[in-house]
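Appendix B. Raw example, untouched.
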Amino acid sequence: MGSRAKRVSTRVEPVAPMPRTRLSRRIAGILCGSLLATALAAGAADAGSDDGWEIGAEIYLWAPWIDIETATGGNIEITLDDILKDLDMLFMANVGVRHGRWSLLSDFVYFEIDQGDNTPLLPGITLSDLTLEAWIVTPQVRYAAYETDDLRVELLAGARYLWLEVQLDLDFRALLPPGGPILAKRTVSDSASNWDGIVGVAGQWDFTDKWYASGYLDVGTGDSDYTWQALASVAYRFKRLDAVVGYRYLDWEFDSDSPIKDMNVHGPFFGAKFLF
């Protein structure tokens, strides 16, 4: 899962909590850096005399499905029902500034899930508990390559940072009889941080004075073998905010050294966009 991934550890229960001090500081630094860059740009907007500056913030509720393919060939699916039942925390926001054809923004996603259902992975192996925690931060710069009164198409470049911590509690059972007694318990854990460069395109079409549609697509690589994201939404303008509803899809393919081969997070969202 990138060059900075820790080696997978397998050990008999009980499991000691994983140290998070270094990773937490790194995550905090990245978040602060992204927010600082946006805040500096926003400060420049406030200080400037040009009325062309726009400052925006978006806050969303996201109801995703999470699909994980392990390196051993097992599949883990966390459905919307699981999310609603097992979700500990979910946060999704976007802040940015725009001046003329240029935009600077940062997108933030955080979720923490603790799923305790018994899920068969392979014959004789059952996943008894899954703990998944992730930060996804996507700072980017955009340039409007095409713009009319009702259509804006932007080219973008930036990066996607993924911090992921996974813990799998596995039960090894006798093959016969089906659902037989547990012979052994193991815990497999991994935490990693990935940086991927991305390029893409984004657009907005105002099809009435109040309604508009937006689309987004990016692709990238780096510590991951491959990553991509797509988003589509429609929005309605109220006096002080825009109400937004849409669908978002995020996907990563990791390197062969990772216990996770592929992960995608996808689902509907709705939220509010504020312009200052």
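End of appendix B.
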